[in-house]
Amino acid sequence: VLDSECPSNVCLMDGTCADPSRFVYAAAGGSDVVCSMAQPCSVDTAVTMLSATKDIVKLAPGVYTRGAPLTMSIAGTIAGGGSTFMVAATAGQTAITAMGVPIRIIGLTLNVAANNSAIRCQVAGGELHLARMRITGGNAAIYTTCPIEVDRTLVTGASLYSLYANAAPVTIRNSYFVRAGTMPA
C-alpha cells in the first residue's frame, strides 16, 4: 500500500514492489546523462530513456520547478514519493502531458498555478493511471479524453475542473476532489 513497505521504496499500483533494475533515476538538480542512482539526470532526460526494461522514472525527493510541460511519449511510470512539481505561472502550461501512451504517476505532489493544468491526456492510445497523488490548484487539474484511473488521490483548489474526463473507462477509488471552482468533478 505504501512505498515504505518496499525495499525499493516504490509500491506499484497493483500492490507489488518495484524492482530497482527497472529504474531510471532523476533528481531536481540532475544534469547527468547516465540516469543512475549515483548520477541522476533531469526528469526530462529520464522520460526519454524509458524502455521495455527500464520503465520507471524514480524521482529523488525534492522540489522540481517546471517552466515547461513534462511530455511523455514513451509509456512508463513516474514514481515520485517525496517529490513535488511546482508549475510556473505562465498561463496555459500543463505539468505533465501523456502523448498517446499509457502513463502511471505514483506518489507525486503537483502544485499548479491558477491558469494551468496539472495533468492532460488528449491523444488516442493514451491512458492515465494516478495513485497516491496530491494535486493543488490549476484551472483544470486533470483534463483527459483518454481512459483514466485515479486511486487514493487528493485534488484540491482547482478553479474550474478538479477532473474533466471524456472517455471510458473512468475509475475513481478512495479519492477526494475538494474546493473546486465553478465546474466541480
What is the average per-residue confidence, as pLDDT, rounded to a whole number? 90
Q: Strand arrangement, largest sheet?
A: 1-2-5-8-11-14-17
- What does the radius of gyration come to? 15 Å
Span of the ends, CA to CA = 26 Å
* Biggest sheet features: 7 strands, parallel
Which outline best applies? globular
* Residues in helices, as a percent range: under 10%
Helix and strand composition category: mainly beta
Strand content: 35-45%
> What is the number of E strands?
18
Encode the helix/strand succession as letters: EHEEEEEEEEEEEEEEEEE
If helices are DSSP runs of H or I spanning 4 or more residues, what is the number of helices?
1
Enumerate the spans where pLDDT stays under 50 for 5 or more consecutive residues: none
What does this structure look like?
- This protein is mainly beta.
- The protein contains one helix and 18 strands.
- The longest helix is centred in the N-terminal third of the chain and has 6 residues, at 43-48.
- A seven-stranded parallel sheet has the order 1-2-5-8-11-14-17.
- The model has no long low-confidence stretch (mean pLDDT 90).
- The protein is globular and about 45 Å long.
Core attributes:
single chain; 185 residues; mainly beta; seven-stranded parallel beta sheet; six-stranded parallel beta sheet
Give the topology, please.
Layout: E1 23-26, H1 43-48, E2 56-59, E3 62-66, E4 70-72, E5 76-79, E6 83-87, E7 94-98, E8 102-106, E9 109-112, E10 117-121, E11 127-131, E12 134-137, E13 140-144, E14 148-151, E15 154-156, E16 161-165, E17 170-173, E18 176-178
Parallel strand pairs: 1-2, 2-5, 3-6, 4-7, 5-8, 6-9, 7-10, 8-11, 9-12, 10-13, 11-14, 12-15, 13-16, 14-17, 15-18
